[in-house]
Amino acid sequence: MEIHFAGEDALIVYLGDDASPEVSGRVQAAAAAIESALGDALVDLVPSYASVLVIYNLLEIDHLAARKQIHAALDALEAGNAREGNLVTLPVYYDPEVGPDLESLAGQAGLDAEEVVQIHLGTEYRVYAIGFAPGFAYLGQVDERIAAPRLTTPRQSVPRGAVAIADRQTAVYPAPSPGGWNLIGRCPQRMFDPDATPTMPVAVGDRVRFEAIDRQAFLDLGGEL
Amino acid sequence: MSGFKVLNPGMLTLLQDGGRYGQHRIGLTTGGPLDRFAMSWANRLVHNDSGETAIEASFGGLKLESSVNTLVAVTGGDQPLTINGVEKAGWRSHRVEAGDIIELGFARQFCRSYLAVHDGFQVTPSFGSTATVVREGIGGLSGGKLDAGDHLPARGTTERECLVLNDPTRAPYQNDISVRVLPGYQVHQFPRLEQRRFFSGTYTVTERADRMGYRLEGPAIECDIKGILSEGICMGAIQVPADGQPIVLLQDRQTIGGYPKIGSALSLDTGRLAQLMPGATVRFEPVTPHAADNLFHMARSMHRRMTLDTVND
Lengths: 225, 313
Fold this sequence. Notes:
The structure holds two protein chains of two kinds. Chain A is α+β, with helices and mostly antiparallel strands. Chain A has five helices and 13 strands. Chain A folds into two domains: 74 residues, Gyrase A, domain 2; 134 residues, Cyclophilin. Helix content of chain A is 24%, strand content 30%. In chain A, the strands form three sheets. Chain A has a seven-stranded mixed β-barrel. In chain A, a hairpin with a 3-residue loop joins strand 3 and strand 4. By secondary structure, chain B is an alpha+beta fold. Chain B folds into two domains: 164 residues, no CATH class; 127 residues, Beta Barrel (Cyclophilin). Chain B is built from four helices and 22 strands. The radius of gyration of chain B is 20 Å and the shape is globular. The chains are: A alpha+beta, B alpha+beta. At the A-B interface, strand 1, strand 3 and strand 4 of A face strand 16, strand 19 and helix 4 of B.
């Protein structure tokens, strides 16, 4: 574990140097421990693949005290006591109609589209980080056989719900946005709804499985083509 | 409710409050005023707390019609204020009446101005804040910048007196500034020579400078690593993409990212940076953590000692 300065009111805690479920588990446990240790002095927290950014209120605490409290909180954490995240199932309509890159990704991988879908369905993913846009959850690790680099030219607009792959990550676009990931299907469930409670179906550390649905089920669940 | 009608929204006019905190975990950034000292004074000049909902007008062109009798104040950059066509001073409050036309001209330099109204604009917060982040579609009236025809609800006052901030340090703006930086994040992945290049070079503000970040152009600096696992980005973080040209990340930054960062600019200086228009120049100066801490608290106590005077209408 290492703690580095991030900014005048922020420290960043590194809990490993790779994107693995073990490191992610430590990140999740560390985030919870730091949150309760800093209490009201905490302004915000960003857990990610292998780090936790801790932003604190300079009127309550300085960097020396913050560092000391973070150390104490993490020393008290027992190795491997990370809470198992919730398991969330997300329905996906996989089809070239909504997954314009499904065929080309399959071609690059030397597979057919159905095999790509089965491999995508066959993994239980972990939410490693949330960012880029509100509700954008980075899920990993995608099976190496279907890991595909980002498009050379990003799309001007990717629709809400697009299920996509970039390298060994997969995600569901929470809102229409530009994007360079490979689109293989579409999920009818909202990944970010400001008016819903909770706002998002997943949190960092949760586990995600995808479930294939057909066109009619996609439409019945409120999906938009 | 009474308030103000937007006759012309200007170039980029946003409702802001102190910012949105505690929401990074669902990917929401902070938002809030780029020049928080200026916005805080605009609010205090109309008898508000520092973080009441006010207007951030970038570049100029805003035109409002009041339907309420109240106090308004404009602070910050260089957009001249007129009420019914008569030029009025910044950094003081003015009485306006129903039917009055309030206009901000265009900035020749120092592009962010703040317009506050007594009691603040009455807008429902989203995720605990009214700060508008256009990229997220969250905050303000409907998640975007102000449009012609928008109605900004505000309560009136006829009781409270007009105030002025006469302090000579109220607008510390220049077109050639030094930004203090706390080295951090991946600073040790930047070879000594590259660090020296960064802290001795002069950088120019480019056209790609907005509420997300200010992209600068100058001596390119190299990092030993090209990318990192995406991690949390704090206010003021200075990221260095592969082309070696630094970007100072501001209020609307993404919450996570994968470019190496050399450290973060102090909040005292990001407001002065965000006032700059393309072509202005910036130098970076490293400070120790203790100095950063002292500077923060000294500035705070200095601001508390600055006082407002009562003026006649």
